[in-house]
Amino acid sequence: MKKISYALLIAVLFVGLTGCGDDSTGPDVNEDPPQMPNIEKGQPDVSFFQENNPQKAATDELNETNNYNQAQMTVLWNTVFFSFGQSYGTLFSQANQEEADFNNGVWEWSYTYNFEGMSASYRTTAEELGNSIKWATYWSYDDGQGDSIDNYKIFEGTVANDESTGDWTFNAMDSDLQQEVPFITSTWNFTSDTEKEINLTMYGDAIDDESANETATIDFEQNGTDFSMDLNFADGETHLVTWNTDTNVGSITSNGETVCWDENFQDVPCE
Questions:
Q1: Where is the signal peptide (predicted)?
Q2: Among 26, 66, 218, 226, which residue's Cβ finds the most Cβ atoms within 10 Å?
Q3: How many domains, in total, are found in the chain?
């Protein structure tokens, strides 16, 4: 059986938005199902680097923004791998359009679709655990040419009712397409809107078989207007980026060497 790539999975997720729901008759209880969480809660806030793109004036030969540019590229290039909310979040968006069933203490939303000979069905489940909810989404797939997946768990996690704490495990596709293999894990703890900690891990098996034992981690913290992101890779490469959204000043330490920028994003000696 051939391996279905992560890229194909994402394509199928988006195609699935054109699918149709099931003929569920809805829950047999008088309670409302829980509201689906915001998956992007588990992603670092890197809007500072997305929104600030300083340009050096043609006549300004003394000022440089190399240090900021290095930090911007490091943060945005690596966090793109952890932007799982936009892709996996479409599953919650679609499921949320369906009516939920309630059986044996578990809420379930399901829908199916057919596309060019392929058929797929999705199930999202939610089990209330007091102050938190355990979520999972499953995928069954048949390409009409002999390759199929049965009830593959795409992702799962437990999220506090107020979404202040939680964890996600997003699975990649193993070669036999039946056993779940972690692609990305995310845990977070928010003590307030401006006090946040997020820990992310990406597993090499989700990229290719040769890097199956490699991992990358990102540890993100926000304390008021002070932010930091600590990136570590299996080959020993490390980056620590710090920035302040009020003053715009920041620094990047790559493999032990630190460089800084000022409020105008210009290169300056580190204090």
A1: 1-21
A2: 218
A3: 2
Q: Return the DSSP state at 41.
A: G
Same domain assignment for residues 75 and 198 = yes
DSSP 39: G
Structural domain containing residue 132 = 1-26+34-43+83-183
Q: Which residue has the tokens 């997305």?
A: 50
Asked if residue 119 and residue 55 are part of one domain, the reply reads no
74 near 254, Cβ under 8 Å? yes
On average, the pLDDT of the chain sits at: 82
Separation between Cα atoms, residue 170 and residue 13, nearest integer Å? 14
* Residues with Cβ within 8 Å of residue 56, at least 6 apart in sequence: 63, 64, 65
With respect to residue 96, please indicate whether it lies within any of the assigned structural domains.
yes
pLDDT for 169-223, tens place per residue?
988 765 455 678 888 899 999 999 999 999 999 887 555 544 445 688 999 999 9
- Mark whether 165 and 258 lie in a shared domain: no
In single-letter form, the type of residue at position 129 comes to L
Cα angle 137, 140, 146; round to 5: 155
